[in-house]
């Protein structure tokens, strides 16, 4: 048995296959020692292999995402049902990936946290990103969203302020709940979102057992150019699991990578996670019968009026071969739509559509779409030229290579025929203005969500929000309490009671934030040691 386990000698071909080379393809004969004057040094400047190795190492990281920095990903397939609910999907959209029952489209999904950095614990209270890239026959479609179905704000002008408030203090570099709740207190439309975030829904147990949502309102367009408003929802067939704060603390004490490990291990075991894609459909008009604007990202569309209609199922069945190449360099954008899918007038969607693609060009470069993880499976032919790290030319067979413009009579690229009638929404007969929408209704749905929670979810919300509010100054406390009381009187009363209880405890109340408490305990619990 021992002889059988001995490593067999490699053939010459095998040796060549595993031989270390540099990026020029030169075999590396010594990867242990730099070239020096004598064996003690100094090092000489002509150490080409060392210089190539170390300068590449110095550039191994691209700029971290400002949001959604920590992520995990997987490959899979989306299978269409050919219907939306009980109706043919073609009634509402001509997008090819949905039309045929059983039609399969390759996908790549990146899950992430939102506010925290690239190596932050996956147990932190935070929305989770859920971004899906569909490699369709008509090119890529990116469905970019979160696990929670709503958002903190409804106007993209506030997005940088929101992220600044939620990120670490620019002086101390410590995330401060007073800054977080200061923004929330002065943004009453955030009341619904924090009701979810401070409940167990703010800490999903893992990526496999969480919902996903496009959050924004989009449109579907059929062959006649007729459009409807749609909301996208991913529903996990593994069920939904969330964590209480204390449970999350215990998991973090064991390891801070649990969600990434869970996803990777499940796929390696062959327990492929699955989600059904559902849509809610609404006619594309003002809907005066609703007490909110259907384009408002801080609102849920009532399921009893706009039911979830199944359109297909996604299965994740393959782990990445290289994290950086596939997960870190994966680039998504809300503007990446295929024919039959369109934008609504959702303000946040309009703002995100510019921001996402702009961010990818900053992080990865002008030609990020040529990277294999981002490149469509369909043919690409453009008149784009140049740019950093461009490594292929987007030419069509038979195209005149001298013509990189359109229109042309010299054999250049030509426009594609239309797949259906253009969707031509009517322009609004109104003034340009800077105003809030006229049905903000910032508190009603927050109250409904609070009342719809199970008792243990309400208890956890009260404990988490009250404890964090105790760390804030009185002005912020009263503004947040006023907002949640508008949502539900019991909600406000119970959070106030919890806040006052925490503040009465000198171990927990302000001015000792938890970070200060942790620093104090570390000094007290530290074990003395002699210098060496």
Mean pLDDT over the full residue set? 92
> Which runs of at least 5 residues are low in confidence (pLDDT < 50)?
1-7
Characterize the biggest β-sheet: 10 strands, antiparallel
Helix fraction, binned, reads 25-40%
Q: Which value, in Å, is the CA radius of gyration?
A: 27 Å
**How many distinct beta strands?**
12
Strand content: 15-25%
Your description of this structure?
This protein is of the alpha+beta class and 532 residues long. The protein has a domain at 71-170 and 204-370: Catalase HpII,  Chain A, domain 1, CATH 2.40.180. Helix content is 29%, strand content 15%. The protein is built from 15 helices and twelve strands. The strands form two sheets. Strands 1, 4, 5, 6, 7, 8, 9, 10, 11 and 12 form a ten-stranded antiparallel sheet that branches. It has a two-stranded antiparallel ribbon with strand order 2-3. Helix 5 (177-185) packs across helix 13 (474-487). The longest helix has 17 residues, at 347-363. Residues 1-7 have low confidence and may be disordered.
Descriptors:
532 residues, Catalase HpII,  Chain A, domain 1, 10-stranded antiparallel sheet, 15 helices, disordered N terminus, heme binding, Catalase_immune_responsive, oxidoreductase
Short recap of the structure:
Keywords: Heme, Hydrogen peroxide, Iron, Metal-binding, Oxidoreductase, Peroxidase. With 532 residues, the protein is α+β, with helices and mostly antiparallel strands. It has helices spanning 2-5, 12-18, 48-58, 159-166, 177-185, 191-197, 245-254, 258-268, 323-328, 347-363, 444-452, 455-469, 474-487, 489-503, 514-525, and strands spanning 71-80, 83-84, 87-88, 104-113, 128-136, 139-146, 212-213, 218-221, 227-236, 274-283, 309-318, 341-343.
